[in-house]
Amino acid sequence: MRISEEELSINLPLNSAFRQQCSPCSISTSRRLSSTKNTLLNTASDRVAVPTPNGTKEPSVNSAPRAFQRCRPEYRNMTHDVSQCSSTVDLNEAFLVLHKVTVQKSNMEPSEIINFLSKLGQIPQEQIVVVRGDKRFNMLLRYSVEILPNFTTPQLLDALMAFVNLSLPHSHSILGLYETEFCQRACEMDLHELLLVADLWRCLGRAVPKYLERLFDNVSRNFNQMGVPELVQLFYIIGEGRRCPDTLVQPVESLLMRHLNQLKPEELGAVCLGLFKSQRSLSERATRRLVDRALAVVEDMSDFGIVNVMKLMRFSYLDHLPWLEAMGSEVPRRAPKMEVQGLMHVILAFSALHYRDDRVLFAVAERLTNVVSRCRSKDAAKMLWAFGTLGVLPNQCPNLYPCLTAILRERQAEFQRYPEHLLTALLGLAFAGLFPEDLLSLALSTEFVNRASNSQELELRKDLFTLDGTVGLELPESTIPRLSLAIREEVTKQLWDFAQSDICQKPEVLEAEDVLRKLLGGEMFVRKHMILPHLRSIDLEVHLDQNDQPIPVSSGPGQQNLASQNLDARISGVTITDDLLAQLTNTRKTPVQQSNKFLQKPEVHTVEPVRERESIFNVGIDLTDDLLMALTKSRKRSPRLSDSKPSIQRLAVQVTHRNHYCYRTEQLLGLHALKRRQLVLAGYRVVELPHWEWFPLLRRSYAEKLAYLHCKIFSCSDSKK
């Protein structure tokens, strides 16, 4: 999991409720398994199965992912229920079948092979390994492949069902040959057969991209045959296959909207999970209607179904307030019986949506203390990230952070294979102001840094850079290892290159920079850069002397001469003239001539009328008596006050976006709260231009912007005395 630059400054339409972003919490779980065709002989041998992440099977969340298939009897025609298989053949009968294979050898007919496979598929689960390890079983598989073209389609289906019942490993080479045969026959199969074959491949756990292509092609030509069960099963296959062709998205969406009200609670959860796993988005309208329908039946939905809806909302970045508000009561009610993975996905979704609901957070935190021993490193890491991002402090949940940190120490061996989990966890802890030195030492050790830097799947050096800079500021006396200068310089360059092409060009930043320059007397007094590069966002740096007079900020060589020429002509800001007050108070005054050539007269523009009261730009700045006093008070200071101030006041002007805060609140998210804290540690005074104040001013007069920034820079300085 990485903190992406996109997360730090998302340039979104201000009135958009439906937003698509690349979530920093999502990790691809797609798997690409080989389906190479081998020679017919000497290939029917088992291969070592590819281990799943963390060495364990991804657990279900309080309900089986295939539970929806029990909602309607129609699913029996297109799915395979392993739990319904009977064990009617004992081991002695199985050996008798295998003996017949050695007698008949290549003289067997397709019907006989299918009969033998079906019987072997009925032995008890504990005896399956014995049968699969018998050489005669491999002979049976080899003979089946030799006459594969002679099988009828129903016989092929029976063979595949037998392989499922026998728990044939998904990497078994014989399966590639069967997949090829099914691909060749796809055009001859009806919709139910196509879906059944796809379901059987899923039961085997084998990726079959070529077959899915044939399936999707045939589905596109037979939409008129699809009812609710077929549609939901298709979504399930799309999700498990992690793919959906572009040409299928719109027809499937239309069909879903047509049948939406007929879907049962678990079917809705299956649709949401399919969309999430395939990383496919529906339109905003369709997604909102889907969640509306889920909300209508939420009380009848399983925990697994609710988690699937949350996953879709996390992926689609949909702020569906009625659903989120309903979770404020549903999650606390269900949390005492939920498992770790379900809790993790719920809290991760709230974090991705920047939505803080203490009822949910505290209910999940309380439940975690009882089930934390079942956490994987992945679960602990994501929950630490989520709680830290939403600003849950250690004193609010005293047992939360210690128990999750303990899991990190217990699962330390997993970080050898999944270094991203450790970095994710440590960042979440840093957001909460916690810095476990032993784990930080591990993350910044030379061996770990080299392993993370060589990762081909995730770019982790930026996370290491953030932790390294955090250690330098938060733990300056520690003996924790630090990144090499070469790595720091390389990552800084990458971040600055991105900032120059994206964040620095945002209108709200450009306008703040321009008005500050006008206010302070020139571009040498404002520097746009990353004060703390490891926190990946830009600042407008301003320096004031003891008398609150602006002084040049060190910049490029081209500006040094200009700065020295104007050093004696420093100004304390824009002079508040009668013209400016007339503009702000809508009264007329007599113009006053400016004698000092260095004083910058503000450009006065007519204030644009704001017609839409609901627009975010409709918030004006009230010209109160306090504001007038702040604008017009003298900038001269008494010697006593000046002596108590540092020789240079360093200001970090922050232009914030609404995505820096928890949803519809003024509470900063974890990363941005961390930055504020570290700017103070670095000796800066933070001057915030919050979006609810600055964005409305973007459409107001230049004079109002000048007045606002004058108040922010100088009156805030007065309040610090």
UniProtKB/TrEMBL annotation:
A molecular-function term among this protein's GO annotations: RNA binding
Keywords, in A-Z order: Mitochondrion
UniProt domain RAP: residue ranges: 651-711
Principal place of residence: mitochondrion
GO (cellular component) term, any one: mitochondrial matrix
UniProt-annotated location(s): Mitochondrion
Top-rank taxon, per record: Eukaryota
Example GO biological process: mitochondrial RNA processing
Pfam families hit by this protein: FAST_1, FAST_2, RAP
PANTHER family assigned: FAST KINASE DOMAIN-CONTAINING PROTEIN 5, MITOCHONDRIAL, FAST LEU-RICH DOMAIN-CONTAINING
Name under which the protein is recorded: FAST kinase domains 5
Organism: Cyprinus carpio carpio
